[in-house]
Design brief:
Elements lengths: L5 H6 L1 H4 L5 E2 L2 E2 L8 E2 L6 E4 L7 E3 L7 E2 L3 E6 L4 E5 L7 E7 L5 E5 L3 E6 L15 E7 L6 E9 L4 E2 L7 E6 L1 H4 L11 H9 L3 E6 L17 H4 L8 H7 L16 E5 L13 H18 L4 E5 L5 E4 L2 E4 L4 H11 L2 H5 L2 E4 L4 E4 L8 E4 L18 H19 L24
Parallel strand pairs: 15-16, 15-17, 17-18, 18-23
Antiparallel strand pairs: 1-2, 3-11, 4-13, 5-7, 6-13, 7-12, 7-14, 8-11, 8-13, 9-10, 9-12, 19-20, 21-22
Helix pairs in contact: 4-10
The structure holds 2-acetamido-2-deoxy-beta-D-glucopyranose (8 copies).
GO molecular function: carboxylic ester hydrolase activity
InterPro entries: CtCE2-like_dom, GDSL, PCW_deacetylase/CE, SGNH_hydro_sf
Keywords: Signal
Length: 428
């Protein structure tokens, strides 16, 4: 499967920032409102990016840069403005919303202040049932990213810390989890659909286009997820320019431990251009799980089987396969009496494994994706369409509900945006 990487995308940013979104062979109109303001014309109360009222979601580095981020806070008054720093990829599309209103979109400009909430924002004058009002922002494109320089509200008003929900999910993956080539990418991926779709759940999507699980250079990403999972920065050209091959460690105590971790990695390892051996993949996949179990000892870990692509075979279509017995074998290993009696843990700091003194209960599940998608759920760029992502997310939500007893709390506000297509006639 061929995927563009963060690095490649950045190298050709001028051309690729203005991607065209195709909708049933027609161009989707993306004339999002321009929200740049001159802040000197407003009376603003401004907060630094390290304000304790701001809740960052997902991985952010110490410069408040992220290519996979979310930001959430409560606010009083009728204005919210955000200033984006110089490391922002110019014209990156962000989604943002207040309360339970629909997502809105704007392209952000580096070194500029954007007025994202004002008295003309839908729902701004309605104060119940969500109070204080909440503001939430997500970046759609996983290769580009933004830097938060400051957050402002009207003078005399304030921002408010919103407590975390008490359950957390993390998806560790590649472009398939990042949502690359879905219409709204990060806000259209199955990983987002799962995290947001469960409702009342914190979700982190640690997923970089083009990355292998095995720790080697794949499509321009310097390292594989076996290594990169422990670091704050992403794998983009911007991060390489700043940190080289010495990124900042991620401080796992910054955010709540995950209760459920999904791993969907191997599609890039399976591509022969990346030269990953099967034994290397199995060995590092095993150690990645041992490392996740060390960092989050109480997390349930779900291994997704790889869906790969589909191809025409004779007069029908068939799904391609990769690492099928390998991933299933890893699942069996972690559920064997041998492992559960004497669990092996992995310590990233010393790059070594050791035997835990405490037996463990089973914590690894296998999620079989075969049969969830069909050939036309994979788009011309070899990644799921929006419909494909919705299918995978929907099945995962129900799997997690049935297997782990998670109640579904998303009961009204939209999760997927721009999916309201329908037929306006009874017969056609
Ligand atoms: C905003 O971003 C979208 C998605 O990348 C793109 O299609 C659109 O052309 C951009 N608009 C501007 C004005 O940069
Ligand atoms: C935020 O950073 C500034 C320095 O840039 C520091 O003076 C301040 O104490 C920090 N605030 C918090 C809440 O950490
Ligand atoms: C943002 O400012 C920095 C200097 O602080 C400059 O290097 C960069 O080109 C600016 N970016 C844009 C898009 O204007
Ligand atoms: C940054 O993007 C905006 C559109 O969002 C555009 O108007 C502006 O010219 C761009 N700036 C640079 C330096 O490319
Ligand atoms: C909010 O403003 C809209 C548009 O001006 C108006 O139609 C609506 O009645 C207002 N709602 C409240 C609760 O004031
Ligand atoms: C894969 O191996 C071939 C032959 O040794 C080498 O030419 C190529 O650069 C390698 N590719 C990667 C991505 O490691
Ligand atoms: C980690 O250890 C493995 C052997 O267990 C070795 O192959 C690999 O090079 C080591 N990685 C680093 C970064 O030292
Ligand atoms: C996964 O599902 C496919 C399709 O139903 C089935 O053929 C396959 O045996 C399943 N794999 C496992 C490990 O259960």
């Amino acid at each position: 499967m061929k995927v563009l990487t963060c690095l490649l995308s950045l190298a050709v940013i001028a051309d690729y920032v203005h991607a065209t979104i195709w909708q049933n062979d027609q161009t989707r109109i993306t004339d999002y409102p321009v929200t740049v303001i001159n802040p000197s014309q407003y009376e603003l109360q401004t907060y630094a990016p390290n304000a304790t009222e701001l809740s960052y979601k997902g991985r952010w580095d110490s410069k408040y840069i992220s290519c996979a981020p979310g930001l959430k806070f409560g606010f009083t008054g009728e204005y919210v403005a955000i200033t984006f720093g110089p490391y922002t990829t110019n014209a990156t599309l962000i989604g943002y919303r207040i309360d339970g209103q629909d997502w809105q979109f704007t392209n952000v400009t580096a070194n500029a202040t954007h007025l994202l909430v004002s008295p003309s924002t839908a729902g701004i004058n309605v104060t119940t049932p969500i109070t204080p009002s909440t503001f939430e922002l997500r970046v759609t494109n996983w290769a580009y990213g933004i830097q938060i320089a400051s957050v402002s509200v009207s003078k005399g008003q304030r921002i408010i810390r919103i407590p975390n929900f008490d359950r957390t999910i993390e998806v560790i993956g590649d472009s398939l989890s990042a949502g690359q080539y879905a219409t709204l990418e990060g806000l259209a991926s199955y990983a987002y659909g799962l995290g947001a779709g469960l409702g009342n759940t914190e979700y982190t999507i640690t997923a970089y286009p083009g990355i292998c699980l095995f720790d080697k250079r794949c499509y321009g990403n310097l390292r594989g997820m076996f290594y990169q999972w422990y670091y704050a920065s992403d794998v983009s050209g911007r991060a390489i320019d700043i940190y080289g091959d010495n990124p900042e460690l991620w401080d796992f105590s910054k955010q709540p431990a995950a209760d459920i971790v999904l791993i969907n990695l191997g599609t890039n390892d399976a591509n022969s251009v990346n030269n990953v051996t099967t034994s290397g993949y199995v060995s590092q996949y095993t150690k990645l799980i041992e490392g996740v179990h060390t960092v989050y000892p109480n997390a349930q870990i779900i291994l997704l089987s790889l869906w790969e692509g589909f191809g025409a075979v004779g007069n029908t279509y068939e799904q391609a396969k990769a690492f099928v017995p390998e991933i299933y074998g890893i699942y069996e290993y972690f559920n064997s009496k041998e492992y559960l009696d004497q669990p092996v843990l992995y310590d990233h700091a010393t790059n070594s494994t050791y035997i835990s003194e405490h037996p463990t209960k089973p914590f690894v599940s296998y999620f079989n994706t075969t049969g969830l998608m069909q050939h036309n759920d994979i788009g011309p760029q070899y990644h799921p369409t929006d419909v494909g992502h919705v299918k995978v997310a929907s099945h995962l939500i129900q799997y997690i509900k049935i297997k782990f007893g998670w109640i579904l709390y998303a009961t009204g506000p939209e999760v997927q945006h721009d999916t309201l297509y329908w037929n306006d006639m009874a017969n056609y």
